[in-house]
Structures are given as structure tokens and as C-alpha cells.
Q: What sequence folds into this?
């Protein structure tokens, strides 16, 4: 919960601007991006995710570092479980992993 | 040292560790608190105490949300499900937190409607899907998770979802640090500041620690090298008589924090006059209460909660461990009555709790070494 999960923005749907699709180790889920409203975001950007919300924009290198940290702390499986568990609903077909 | 060797660039780690040993005055005993439970976990996982000089002691701080949650709050949350037929939704970390009559998980086994969620938005979806039931989200966490609860409440209001409420147990880190600084049995030389909490609040809120208490604060990342570098930065300040707030984790933490997150926190929450912290007692203005304008979604206003203050089991010494007066293994219950599998106290529940971290990485390792020998 307190350690962030890095994800790559793969889709920023215009029809629901407060949500984006992130990919984490091949799994795609919807996350809320309202907390990054003051940052310019585009597909391909990396973000740190806490409980379904993107909290900060980071570099690709920073994302790799965070993934390595989660693995070293033995929290990588729990992080994937969390990402896979996000279930906010209203998920169009093309977003599904 | 094993884990440090596995880490990239062990040479750099050794350099920083050597520099720490060189700077540490052998005639002095250093007590440095890592505030965040994520750091506590990493320190035990990487065996960092092994590379630090013996006169440098790391004190584990209060930054583990489930660890500082008083038992009475868990009881209050469970009562909404039991007495009012609501669905109790919470993060996985909450599921094993002991209440007076068992954890949420044990209540679930006895038939109470308890659901684990990964996001407060999942709890809101539960409310949409069960319009004839009330869904309560049992919210915990510091500033890292509080903005997501706030945005979820904004969403509930926008959609007019009336069968949803939040029991806010959100706490703020600064008053807890202040309480620790004011505590007479607590002598500290500096702080390793939390990483992800600081992405929200930034570095400015720590300035009073440096200015008014003369203690260095270094906001730190979570990798072994980050933590060691932060300790080195603290020692450098101490060696040159400085006390400042420094940001070792600038690659993720902006000095000003996340303004959008701070704005949504201010929209939904206000400070409670006081709130009880397990082990630290009542701390004024240390927790977040839902504002009047969101009263419809505030569990505390919608339901009569027992609100009974429950003391910890007498034999458990969670409070002393939380304050750093005792090391985890010095508690009478440690590793016997209280284990990560069957926690008596909350410090044994979360992987970020000092007792669970100590048990998983130090206690088990020494038990395994003893078995081999």
C-alpha cells in the first residue's frame, strides 16, 4: 500500500479524462490520473501508482529502479496482485489485458 | 550483507558505508529514526544494520499505518458491518489487524460481510453494484493514500451515490514526528524522511524539525544505496553542525509536493482536534476528519459507533517498540505468542511493521543459522 507500483501510460481516453490505461508487466488496468492534473501526460510516460491512483510522473529509469526494489523486497507478487485487482468498472473491451 | 551484495553496484554501497564509518565519531552514540515503514522493511530486508557502525542505531518510526491504528477503531469499523448490516471494505493490510473479537478476516469467516479491495474506487464500485446495501470503506494511511480517498469521495458526491461512506482513519505524519520530538524518553539525532508521503506533502513541512529542534532531516528513497546515502547526509550535517532539510530522493519527490493532491485533501478533509495513535497516545491535530460538506459520506456521522477505547493486551509491548524504547525481540510475546502468522499486536501484521520485518529477516535467519550449526 505504501510502496508505489510503476506503470506505463498506454492510453489516455478523451472520453474519460480522469482515467488512463497503464501497463504493468503486461497487465493493463485503468488508474485515476486526477492527481497529475498539473502535469502534461502522454502515452509512453511512466507513473508511480498508489491504490489505483497515479501519484507522480517518473522517468523510465526510475520505473525500472522501482520494479527492482519491489522484487528485492519480495513485494512484486503483491504489487501484481494489486494491479490485477483494480476493478473500477466501465472497462471497454480494447482496454482489457 | 548478503542482500547488499546482490544489489547493483555493491562497490558504491561499500564506499558510502566506509564514508559513514569514517564520519561517525567513535565517542558518540547516534540514534537516527527512519520515519517510514517502507524504509524499516528495506533496512531489515537488506541487512543494512550490518554495514553500519555499532554506535549508529536506527530507530523505527511510526510510519506504518496499520501499526498505529488503535484497536478501538477496528472495532468501530466492524460494528458498522455487524450492527448495521453494511459491507466492510478495506485494503488487504487491514484484514489481519486484530480487533477485540478478532481481525476482519476472522469476522469474515464467521459470516460478516467483509471485502478486500485494492483501491477506494473498488469500494465505490461495490456500492454501485449493491444499491440496497451500505458499503463502508475503512480508510487507513498517511498522506500517500489520503488523496485517493478524497478523490473517491468527490466521485461519490458527483454521482450521488448515497449508500457509500468512509470511516476515515487517515493520519498525518508531521504531528507524530512533533510528538516524538517532544517525548522526554526520546533522544534522536536526525531523521530519514519518508519517501512517498513526501511526494504529496513535499519537503517544506519538515523544516520546523531542522529549525526549531536542530535535527537534520533527509527525505530518502528506498534502495539500500538511497538509505545509506541519506544516513551519510545526516552524519555530514551533524559533523559540520548544520541542521537542514535535504532531499536525497529528488528524482521522485518535488520540494513543493503534489499540489493537486494537497488541494483535494483540503477540499474533503479537515484536521481532527486529536486522535489516538497506538503506542503514542493522543496526538493533537494528527488525523483527518471528513468535512461537513461531505457529511453524507462520513461513516462516523451516519452510524452510531461504539467509540470504545480498547487497551492493547497487557503482555504486548507494542507501544515501547513503536517509540523505539524496546527492540522488537525484546517484547515478551515476540516470536512466541505473537508471530506474523498469528499477530497479537499490529506491528506484527504488516510487512512494514518493525516486528514483522525483524521476524521475517532477522529472527528467521538466526533460527535457520542455529538449525544449520
A:
Amino acid at each position: 500500500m505504501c510502496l508505489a507500483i510503476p506503470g506505463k501510460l498506454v492510453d489516455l481516453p478523451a472520453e474519460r479524462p480522469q482515467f488512463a490505461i497503464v501497463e504493468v508487466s503486461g497487465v493493463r488496468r485503468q488508474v485515476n490520473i486526477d492527481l497529475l492534473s498539473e502535469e502534461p501526460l502522454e502515452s509512453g510516460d511512466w507513473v508511480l501508482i498508489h491504490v489505483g491512483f497515479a501519484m507522480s510522473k517518473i522517468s523510465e529509469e526510475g520505473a525500472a529502479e522501482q520494479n527492482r526494489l519491489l522484487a528485492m523486497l519480495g513485494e512484486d507478487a503483491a504489487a501484481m496482485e494489486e494491479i490485477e485487482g483494480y476493478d473500477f468498472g466501465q472497462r471497454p473491451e480494447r482496454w482489457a489485458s | 550483507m548478503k542482500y547488499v551484495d546482490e544489489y547493483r553496484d555493491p562497490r558504491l554501497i561499500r564506499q558510502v558505508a566506509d564514508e559513514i564509518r569514517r564520519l561517525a565519531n567513535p565517542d558518540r552514540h547516534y540514534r537516527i529514526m527512519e520515519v517510514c515503514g517502507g524504509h524499516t522493511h528495506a533496512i531489515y530486508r537488506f541487512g543494512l544494520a550490518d554495514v553500519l557502525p555499532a554506535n549508529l542505531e536506527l530507530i523505527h518510526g511510526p510510519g506504518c499505518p496499520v501499526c498505529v491504528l488503535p484497536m478501538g477503531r477496528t472495532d468501530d469499523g466492524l460494528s458498522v458491518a455487524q450492527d448495521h448490516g453494511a459491507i466492510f471494505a478495506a485494503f488487504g493490510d487491514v484484514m489481519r489487524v486484530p480487533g477485540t473479537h478478532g481481525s476482519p478476516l476472522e469476522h469474515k469467516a464467521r459470516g460478516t460481510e467483509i471485502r478486500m479491495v485494492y483501491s477506494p474506487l473498488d469500494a465505490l464500485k461495490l456500492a454501485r453494484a449493491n444499491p440496497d446495501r451500505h458499503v463502508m470503506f475503512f480508510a487507513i494511511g498517511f498522506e500517500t493514500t489520503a488523496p485517493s480517498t478524497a478523490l473517491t469521495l468527490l466521485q461519490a458526491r458527483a454521482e450521488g451515490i448515497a449508500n457509500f461512506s468512509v470511516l476515515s482513519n487517515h493520519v498525518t505524519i508531521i504531528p507524530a514526528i512533533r510528538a516524538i520530538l517532544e517525548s522526554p524518553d526520546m533522544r534522536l539525532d536526525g531523521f530519514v524522511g519518508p519517501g512517498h508521503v513526501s511526494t504529496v506533502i513535499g519537503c517544506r513541512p519538515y523544516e520546523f524539525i531542522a529549525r526549531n529542534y536542530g535535527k537534520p532531516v533527509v527525505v530518502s528513497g528506498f534502495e539500500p544505496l538511497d538509505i545509506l546515502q541519506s544516513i551519510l547526509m545526516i552524519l555530514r550535517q551533524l559533523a559540520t553542525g548544520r541542521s537542514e532539510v535535504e532531499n536525497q530522493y529528488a528524482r521522485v519527490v518535488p520540494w513543493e509536493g503534489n499540489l493537486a493532491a494537497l488541494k483535494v485533501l483540503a477540499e474533503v478533509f479537515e484536521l481532527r482536534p486529536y486522535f489516538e495513535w497506538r503506542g503514542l497516545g493522543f496526538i493533537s491535530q494528527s488525523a483527518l476528519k471528513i468535512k461537513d460538506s461531505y457529511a453524507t459520506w462520513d461513516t462516523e456521522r451516519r452510524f452510531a459507533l461504539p467509540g470504545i477505547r480498547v487497551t492493547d493486551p497487557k503482555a504486548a509491548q507494542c507501544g515501547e517498540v513503536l517509540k523505539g524504547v524496546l527492540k522488537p525481540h525484546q517484547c515478551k510475546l515476540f516470536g512466541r505468542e505473537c508471530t506474523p502468522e498469528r499477530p497479537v499486536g499490529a506491528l506484527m501484521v504488516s510487512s512494514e511493521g518493525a516486528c514483522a520485518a525483524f521476524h521475517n529477516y532477522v529472527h528467521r535467519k538466526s533460527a535457520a543459522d542455529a538449525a544449520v550449526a
